[in-house]
Amino acid sequence: MVTMEPAWEQTLEAGRAIRPYLTELFPERLSTRQELDFCLARALDLTTRDEEAAAAKVRTLLRAHPETADWTAKFEAHGAPEDAARRGHGPGGPGELVVAPRYTCPVADDYVWHRRSASVLPPLCPTHGVRVRPAPRTPQ
């Protein structure tokens, strides 16, 4: 059974999850990706006070560039980064969408990374400098 998240929660999750992809999305534009990452981290920090306002800021940031708008559309279609979701044999049977394990920053839940291979060490959160940890697929 799929649980429906409010639209603002999906936007916040897209903002958390896009951060590891900014280098790939803007390979030649260091200042763009640094500024966007900084702005996303600041907007996501607002979730402790007002999730819907934070989501509105994140949505604006995600729509500001064609690269991030395209990435976000694909994220919304799968509920996860496109390369972290595939059709496979999950608990629900053949053809179920299987998503790589979700890791998040234990300090502020402002950075999400999906582990697509057990041989890859989870990264450090760029905001807090701590290693991301396994977390539930849907934020609590």
Could you describe the 3D structure shown?
It is a single chain. With 140 residues, the protein is α+β, with helices and mostly antiparallel strands. It has five helices and five strands. The chain has a three-stranded antiparallel sheet with strand order 4-3-5. The chain has a two-stranded antiparallel sheet with strand order 1-2. A hairpin with a 2-residue loop joins β1 and β2 (93-99). α1 (7-18) packs across α5 (66-78) and α3 (30-45) packs antiparallel against α4 (51-63). The longest helix has 16 residues, at 30-45. The chain is globular and about 35 Å long.
Keywords:
alpha+beta, single chain, 140 residues
Shape descriptor reads globular
What percent of residues are in strands? 15-25%
Mean pLDDT: 85
Quaternary status of these chains?
A: single chain
Number of strands: 5
Radius of gyration computed on alpha carbons: 15 Å
Q: Biggest sheet: strands side by side, in what order?
A: 4-3-5
Element string (H = helix, E = strand): HHHHHEEEEE
Instruction: Give the number of helices.
Output: 5
Q: Biggest β-sheet: count, sense, barrel?
A: 3 strands, antiparallel
